[in-house]
Write a structure and sequence with these properties.
The complex is a heterodimer of chains A (about 110) and B (about 110). Chain A has about 110 residues and is an all-beta fold. Helices cover about 0% and strands about 55% of the residues of chain A. In chain A, strands 2, 4, 5, 9, 10 and 11 form a six-stranded mixed β-sheet that branches. Chain B is mainly beta and about 110 residues long. Helix content of chain B is about 0%, strand content about 50%. In chain B, the strands form two sheets. In chain B, strands 2, 4, 5, 6, 9, 10 and 11 form a seven-stranded mixed β-sheet that branches. The chains are: A mainly beta (about 110), B mainly beta (about 110). The interface of A and B includes residues 42, 92, 99, 100 and 104 of A.
């Protein structure tokens, strides 16, 4: 069975600091991996996705993630945090051909001025 | 181009009642997935509809059922509501492939009293 573990339910950074949100996955077959962001009282918006092409994936709003098969990780980073990045972030894995997403528990990112 | 729309935005029901939630997919998408997001949790896959049939189902009881119409819109029905069914219900639409982006709607907040 596939699963996703997000390390750290709450991450706090200062504005301008590096953002690092951790995600580890478990999958018996090559996975597709996704990061989504959810702002309060809204649905989920895709930040980026890994689909077995380049291992370093660039997404929207300056975010990027690196797929490391040996570490079964797909951590999300951003060089410089903005106040507008404060939100809930979800890592998700899909391994079937039908797009069923399995989500982690989420990480709340707080950005301090 | 309208994205995924869901109705209603909020809903309050009492235990034992039945509820129907509605979703219209993004233009050009023919696959609709439903997720349940409990407070403070990641979304959990309920089921997916493609060509008016349930293609995949998550670990949810038969009280949860759905339907997809010829125009690809979809309904989620929940019978015999329990307090634990209180959650944000998210609809996502996509093309029928796991590596394609799933576009999420804003969700329906269901409160069961």
């Amino acid at each position: 069975a596939q699963s996703v573990t997000q390390l750290g339910s709450h991450v706090s950074v200062s504005e301008g600091a590096l953002v690092l949100l951790r995600c580890n996955y478990s999958s018996s077959v090559p996975p597709y991996l996704f990061w989504y962001v959810q702002y309060p009282n809204q649905g989920l918006q895709l930040l980026l996705k890994y689909t077995s092409a380049a291992t370093l994936v660039k997404g929207i709003n300056g975010f990027e993630a690196e797929f490391k098969k040996s570490e079964t990780s797909f951590h999300l980073t951003k060089p410089s945090a903005h106040m507008s990045d404060a939100a809930e972030y979800f890592c998700a894995v899909s391994t079937s051909n039908t797009g069923k997403l399995i989500f982690g528990q989420g990480t709340t990112l707080q950005v301090k001025p | 181009d309208a994205g995924v729309t869901q109705s209603p935005t909020h809903l309050i029901k009492t235990r034992g009642q039945q509820v129907t939630l509605r979703c219209s997919p993004k233009s050009g998408h023919d696959t609709v997935s439903w997720y349940q997001q409990a407070l403070g949790q990641g979304p959990q896959f309920i089921f997916q509809y493609y060509e008016e049939e349930e293609r995949q189902r998550g670990n949810f009881p038969d009280r949860f059922s759905g339907h997809q119409f010829p125009n690809y819109s979809s309904e989620l029905n929940v019978n015999a509501l329990l307090l634990g069914d209180s959650a944000l219900y998210l609809c996502a639409s996509s093309l029928p492939s796991s590596y394609n982006e799933q576009f999420f709607g804003p969700g329906t907040r269901l409160t069961v009293l």
